[in-house]
Amino acid sequence: MSYIGKEDEVQQRRYWRWSKVDFLPEESFQNWNTYLSALSQIYSRFNDRLLSRSDDANEITQLRKQSENDMKRCLTWWDLTWFGFGSVIGAGIFVLTGQEAHHHAGPAIVLSYVASGISAMLSVFCYTEFAVEIPVAGGSFAYLRIELGDFVAFITAGNILLESIVGGAAVARAWTSYFATLLNRQPDSLRIPKGNYLLDPIAVAVLAIAATIAMISTKKTSQLNWIATALNTLVILFVLIAQFAHANTSNLTPFLPHGAKGIFQAAAIVYFAYGGFDNIATMAEETKNPSRDIPLVLLGSMSIITVVYCLMALSLSMMQKYTEIDPNAAYSMAFQSVGMKWAKYLVALGALKGMTTVLLVGALGQARYTTHIARAHMIPPWFALVHPKTGTPINATLLMTISSGLIAFFSSLDVLASLLCVSTLFIFMMMAVALLVRRYYVREVTLAINQTKLVIFLLIIIASSMGTSAYWGLRPNGWLGYVVTIPLWFLGTMGISIFLPQQRTPKVWGVPLVPWLPSLSVAINIFLMGSLGPLAFIRFGICTVAMLVYYILVGVHATYDMAHQQQKLDALKVKNEDEDKEGKA
């Protein structure tokens, strides 16, 4: 592995290898004595990692050497545009719309998509500024590692992997439901009942096929994606035209059957429908002009998708009474209810195409996240390797696919979606915080007093946002709590705006209205998180505890060793340069 050796040299070895040093090359894991010694230093090592931050150059240049081979730069704005549509439009709009309209929001599901869309667009703004300046495969993981440090990046990395694994499983389960509908069968009819579980071998097979395509070639995956997404776009146009043609405004009454609380409960769940756009940022290393293409594609595709989602939600609510919407195959059954039985097959086919492209793009993006996380040694660096012939991270793709397949085989979509949304909202909230830190704090430049002010103002923003969310959950019809929490959020944001000078100016493109837009993104994401049920947070808490246990036992030692090994190499390089200068003199 390239972990040990000269800084600018990478020993070429065969790709398929399985020795211990390929998985645990760090000094702490050489034998039991070194491992026990590392555990005895856990306090000092944790403090070291808690305060340690990466930098742009390290993420862009140094860490990429861990992959031994470069990914192929083969993507253009055209590829990314279709990736943008293909990565987002899938199970969320076709499955969760009916589920949440039926159970929580009613016809007001369109407002749920508006709320989620606003939050997603704010997150897209934050992503674009980072993507312009740090074009690496790690996406949000790399951005947070630079701005918020190693420990926060690890927690985020755990949630990224959780989001990727659970998201792939959820879409694959939905794929099976719509495939059954296409065969004129009940959504669960192709699953195998086993005790309290409905086993789903088809979902596993679909995940395996998508991963195989992604491993063979990024460019070929792109070509297949844009063809399938173009066909899916035609189906969506048909759905909109046909549903509005059969619209009945009386179906919109009552518009708010479960009140405002139902809107935000649904918004927190349908946020899953907007997930996937962050996969575009992970393709920076394979994009010919990432600084120009990625921001344009993110902003353009997400703007169009938000409008399309709102129109699809509205047309469904006008076509069929929310109490009669089928939670499992809403659009197909809605057409059947108005006598267009043949149309349900077209919708099911379009949904299958949409979910297939989500799985394809997901297989690409998730593997690239995993690759960069492995480059930082937060998981074994074996998963960072890029295959010399295909130019793709095959090991990372296999890890994500096998993990998603195991979950998809057993778990239901509603369980997966609620857990996924907590992780997604948490990551996007942290991205907004990271952007504020990037603008207002630069190491060895920002004054200590300004650093303290920034921390205080950020804590006020986060705490007031949590207070607003908690009060909403406890007293959805109250108002007194908002008199305290909302002004506090306003004062925290205004404090940054007035009392802190911006320390960094974006080189090419930057988020407008800083600090207001990132602060609003923090508030909305936390609010939507609070709208999810307690069970989702229990599952999220259990997963977080598991991540911390792994970090204490493995992650902190691997990253500590790697960081200090790099410091030794840097010191040795400086020493050699000094000796060369003395020799010449």
Automatic annotation (TrEMBL):
Q: Transmembrane residues, as ranges?
A: 74-96, 108-130, 151-175, 195-217, 224-243, 263-284, 296-318, 345-369, 390-410, 416-442, 454-473, 479-501, 508-530, 536-560
GO cellular component, as recorded: plasma membrane
Q: Which Gene3D superfamilies match?
A: Amino acid/polyamine transporter I
The Cationic amino acid transporter C-terminal domain is annotated at: 509-558
| Superkingdom as given in the UniProt entry | Eukaryota
Q: Which Pfam families match?
A: AA_permease_2 (PF13520), AA_permease_C (PF13906)
How would you describe this protein's topology in the membrane? Multi-pass membrane protein
Give the protein's recorded name. Answer: Cationic amino acid transporter C-terminal domain-containing protein
